[in-house]
Design brief:
The structure is a single chain. By secondary structure, the protein is α/β, with parallel strands linked by helices. Helix content is 45%, strand content 11%. Helix 5 links the parallel strand 2 and strand 3. The chain is globular, with a radius of gyration of 19 Å.
Amino acid sequence: MGSYVFEKLIHSRGVPARNILIFRSAECDLTKEENCRKVVQKIDIVIHLAAKVGGIGFNQKFPADLFEDNLLMGVQLMRAARKAGVEKFVAIGTVCAYPKFTPVPFPESYLYCGYPEETNAPYGLAKLMLHEQAKANRKQHGFNAIYLLPVNLYGPRDNFSPKSSHVIPGLIKKVADAQEEGRNWIDPWGTGEASREFLHVEDCAEAIVLATEKYNKPEPVNIGVGKDIKIKNLVEIICRLMNFNGEIRWNKTKPDGQPERRLDTTRAEREFGFKATTDFETGLKKTIDWYLNQRAQDIKT
């Protein structure tokens, strides 16, 4: 996500690259307080995109890491930013913060009306604390911190590792693996009955930049498309786009996760004019093409 926000700022907004600092986890561990203090010096705006994330399996295997690392990064970075005199802090939350059973489409007003879906609750709650911290700092210190809630993202440059990927890259890799191995079946997790809303990463980057430019209120804001799709239908589309005609063997021993996710996106459009524009199948095709190209390059090297 960071690279897309960087490109939006440069190409769409004309911000000089020298005025943008990017810190990646490999070079700057934000779970360490001293690093958080260093990166916010002489900075006007912080867009906090750092996160430890993964799919359902990753969430089930590493709940403590996901809770602690995300909580530490958020708390320490926002506090350091406020103390350093940063003008604005843009906190990026997650749809996983919503209660398991939320009226669809999810309105921001229901964010605190229940416990998140169990498989991703530690991650979701850690990210939700960013909103609490933002509100508290605004009230006590007058600190301009805003909180955005993106829905499930997808697109080129995603994480395709089977150990930690989300659903779309995970499914694309399953199909590519089956084709490479000459196998006529794939085994997606769950029943296929759960539904998800997916936002292309370039649309999300535009929403983040728009909010950074125009939004300065304490209320959380959903970032999404406002449309969802059943996982079984998603699998069918990916198989069609990848010319895979094999059998779909649903692994029903694995969880579906939250039954349904779809956001009410009216606040984002009203407050800072954001509306997603990427056609879903077009975005999927770009994602598939990028992954297959990377896969081919990896084979050559």
